[in-house]
Amino acid sequence: RLDFLMQELNREANTLGSKAIDPRSTQAAVNIKVLIEQMREQIQNIE
User: How high is the pLDDT of residue 26?
Assistant: First the structure.
């Protein structure tokens, strides 16, 4: 279940990145994706 939620968060971050006009927004989306991936790895270690 948590892995699914991380996938959804990743999709949302992709959407943010693709719609971002400002380079800072694009960088923020990339940073969010990195954090989501780290969380996903932690969740996989737990499950």
Answer: 93
Structure tokens that stand for 37 in this block:
């991936």
- pLDDT tens column, 14-27: 999 999 999 999 99
Write out the residue range of the structural domain in which residue 16 sits. 2-46
* Max Cα-Cα span within the chain: 37
Total domains, the chain: 1
Cα Rg for the chain, rounded, in angstroms?
Answer: 12
Phi and psi angles of residue 20, each rounded to the nearest 5 degrees, phi first: -70, 135
Do 45 and 26 contact (CB within 8 A), yes or no? Answer: no
| Global pTM value | 0.82
Give the span between the Cα atoms of 43 and 12, in whole angstroms: 19
